[in-house]
Structure formats: structure tokens, C-alpha cells
């Protein structure tokens, strides 16, 4: 039996019952992020716990989300939609609804490139007047294996200080506005901040973090999906003060533009600069994506964390971050689930699962 087969067999059996834990009880897990990175984490986590909450960034200003945000003044729904789709089950109902809400219209008119799920979410926001209640309703419709919450109750603008954003002025630092622009900048991002600078956190998101057994941050676009959670004061306070264990999941490869040329340890360094009071317990990285394990261990130790290396990439992680067959590397949901399962079991907890 291969190593992968053994890991998946253990995951499917998932019968480990620590002292004091009732058989069948599951850890309360909160995952923070946005876009494809958060979707990958949720697709893995829903396989090992039924008590799962996603807290999603609301700074997207591109594509369908950006158009709806500008026209209607609503929270950008795109990353919320992706999180809901990732929480859909593997049965016919779940997979059918996942495809429906991810479907985009193709036309010559105003509906072109709008996602069905974006329109549905915004319609329910307008009907109910409560973004959390509306997302809960969509989750019930989809049979989602978890809850999806926005990190803030107001649309946010991401701004970044970028060195060399204009290639003609490589040494100058400019302020770059908008998540879509920051994600694609050819320059070097120095720091990011949100507008407004003191946005209100969604109370349910704060409560979920404070009540969690585990908080998972990342993977995802580092400056535009992962770090923004640390820039919402009430949410950062909850992350610092929670009794939950905190695991940071690193990306499989640097992101072109936003983190071009970043080593795994540099990802930790910039996160630490944005939230110096935040301590971590575990840093999870793909074992084939870490060329300098000692440097990563040193960077993790400065944040209070141990490093766990595991094969979590679909088809492996070849050199230069290319997935097998070319293209952007992706996480394998079952391998990532096995890695999270091992971390949850081996790194202890504050108390018995509830």
C-alpha cells in the first residue's frame, strides 16, 4: 500500500478519540481567506469536520463582483460564492448546485460574465436586508457542509504600497488601489492596508474565531486574501486572544505579480510585519515546495510555530511551482484533508471537542 493510500485510509476511518472527547464529536474549525486558496482549504476541511465556518474577505473589486459592488453598493459576492461552492457535498445535489452557482452567463449584453451565484446572493441580500441571514439561507439551499460569513459588514478597498509598480520608475514607491490591481502588480508589494482603516467586523465571524478549536489561515493570495483578515481590528483581536490553535497553510508556489520570487519563509515574515502580536501554532507546507527547510523552521519559530511538511499538491509540486502537466499548482483536497487531520490530532487542543 502506498503512503498516499495509507493517509487516505486513515482519513476515511477518522475514529481517533482523545481522552475526554465524546465519540462522534468534531473540532470546531474556522477557515479564513478568499478565492481559490480558501476554496481548497474548505474542500479539505469539510471532509474531516462538520463544524466548519469560513470567514471571507470582502475587498474584491474585479469582474462580476466588482460590477455588482459598483452598481448596487453591496459586498462583493464572488469569494463568498466560491466558499459556498467548496462546501457543497460530493453527492448529486451538492455537485449540481456547485455547478449552478459557479455558472457564468455568456452573452453580448449586461449579463455577460456574471456568475449565477453572485446574482442569487445579491438578490437575497436585497430581499432580507441581512448579509449573514442571506448567506445562511443560500447554504441551506445548497446543503453546504459549513457556514460562510463575510469578514466585514461593509465593502472594503485594498490599498498597497508598491515599489516599482511603474516599470519606468523601478525604485519609486506608489500607492496602488484595488484588490484586482494589487494582485497583478508587476512591482514589489511593501505593505497593504484597508479603506476604511477601522472596518467593522461581522460579529458572527468574531464569535466563531473566539469559540473555535482550530483556526486555519491560508492558503491564498497573500496580500489580497490572507493578510486582509489581520487588518480588521476586531477580527485581529479575536485571532490574538482566542484559545484556539492556529495553523497557517502556505501556498504551493509564489503568485505571479503579488509574491513573485517569495520564499516560503518570506511569506511568514511579511505576515508577521502586518500582525506582530499574532502567534501561530503550526505552519503547513508542501514538502516539495520548501527548498530551505531550516530557514522556514527559523521563520516559523519566530511566530511561535512548528513546521509540518506533507505532500498536499495535486500531482506533486515540480520545480518552479508548475503543476504536473503545466499550469497553476493546485491542492489535492484529500491529501490536504489528511494533513489537517494529522495536525489536529497530533498538535493537541485546549479542551475536548464539543
Describe this structure in words.
The protein is of the alpha/beta class and 354 residues long. Helices cover 40% and strands 15% of the residues. It is built from 14 helices and ten strands. The protein has helices at residues 3-13, 35-45, 63-72, 78-86, 92-102, 116-128, 131-142, 179-183, 203-211, 222-226, 233-241, 264-274, 293-302, 333-346, and strands spanning 29-33, 52-56, 147-150, 157-163, 173-177, 188-195, 214-217, 245-249, 282-286, 306-310. The strands form two sheets. A seven-stranded parallel β-sheet has the order 3-2-1-7-8-9-10, with helices on both faces. Helix 1 crosses helix 14 (333-346), helix 6 crosses helix 7 and helix 12 packs parallel to helix 13 (293-302). The two termini are 34 Å apart. Residues 8-24, 317-325 and 350-354 have low confidence and may be disordered.
List the defining traits of the structure above.
disordered C terminus; three-stranded antiparallel β-sheet; alpha/beta; globular; 354 residues
